[in-house]
Amino acid sequence: MEAIVAEFQKLQNTFQTTVEARQRLDSQLSENLQVKKEFDSLSSSNQIYKLIGPVLVKQDQTEAKSNVDKRIEFIKSEIERVEKQLQDLNDKMEKKKVEIVALQTKAQEAQAGSGPAIAA
Predict the structure, then answer these.
(1) How many CB atoms are closer than 10 A to CB 89?
(2) Is 54 inside any structural domain?
(3) 44 exposed, middle or buried (CB, 10 Å; 0-12, 13-18, 19+)?
(4) Rounded distance, CA 102 to CA 89, Å?
(5) What is the full DSSP assignment across 33-45?
């Protein structure tokens, strides 16, 4: 029983870590969508600079837009992958819960069966 409970706790920890990863991806997606929105409002004469360390480096507008679009697609695919992982973890956790409840029920039945009989 302890082994199954330990497995369940491990699944819970993995689930929590995966949820945190999903939240980070949501944040990154939101930031990149905001950048894309800003890029869409630029005219072709506007300059784009990229912060690299402490220096702003001029960047081609088309290249910058392309990079943001690629990043958005990558983040979306990562979100899909993480969602599938969360669903799998959730399914595994539900199966472990059922196992734990079944073992607890058997233990209680065994304990009730071996207890002293009370005469009425």
Answers:
(1) 18
(2) yes
(3) exposed
(4) 20
(5) HHHHHHHHT--TT
Give the chain's domain count: 1
Q: Give 4's contacts (C-beta < 8 A, 6+ positions apart).
A: 96, 99, 100, 103
**Beta-carbon contacts of residue 68 (< 8 Å; ≥ 6 apart):** 32, 35, 36, 39
- Give pLDDT tens digits for 1-49: 788 889 999 999 999 999 999 999 999 999 999 999 999 999 999 999 9
In a domain, 92, yes or no: yes
Residue 120 inside a domain? The answer is: no
Question: Quick one: angle between helices 2-40 and 61-114, nearest 10?
Answer: 160
Query: Is 23 contained in some domain?
Result: yes
Model confidence over 39-77: pLDDT tens digits? 999 999 999 999 999 999 999 999 999 999 999 999 999
Range of the domain at 63: 2-110
CATH number at residue 57: 1.10.287.370
